[in-house]
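User: quick one
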Amino acid sequence: SQTIHQWPATLVQPVGSPLSLECTVEGTSNPNLYWYRQAAGRGLQLLFYSVGIGQISSEVPQNLSASRPQDRQFILSSKKLLLSDSGFYLCAWSEGTQNQPQHFGDGTRLSIL
Amino acid sequence: AQKVTQAQTEISVVEKEDVTLDCVYETRDTTYYLFWYKQPPSGELVFLIRRNSFDEQNEISGRYSWNFQKSTSSFNFTITASQVVDSAVYFCALSEADYGQNFVFGPGTRLSVLP
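Assistant: Done. Structure below.
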């Protein structure tokens, strides 16, 4: 069966520091991969999605970037974190065809001080 | 442009009551997909159901049921005989056939089931 791993679970970072969140999927090939942010008490905002290695689509221009160095690995990065980057970050995967259900990781709670 | 509205921000019910969570969507596509997800306090989102725009048949899964009505652009979710474990935030989401990677989520409804 397929599993998705996301780490770390919580992270506290100072303003201006870099960020790297990692997500890996097991048990499937060529999945679509996604990064979402959920502000406290709010809905989900799609940040990036990827349909293949090296293919990244950005939905919201911002301080963050994403990369997909391997088929089942998706990384969310920032060179300099802002206070507004605080939130709950969720990685998800879906089958490679469109409109399939997305399956989410456990999330990373990021606090910027 | 696609949009999902969940007008109920928070709902509280007493255990064993029935509760309906509303979802209204907007899309210009004739082919689209609707989803419901549950986010328990632990944070991960759990997929509950997917429905395509050509299938208006209502669905029942145990205590859960979904009512899809294209005439009112609604996809409502009912929990029968609610339990404390149903307490969570519930999200409705929409994807259009031509933009299948781009899910639009509603703001969510926080359901509290009191013992």
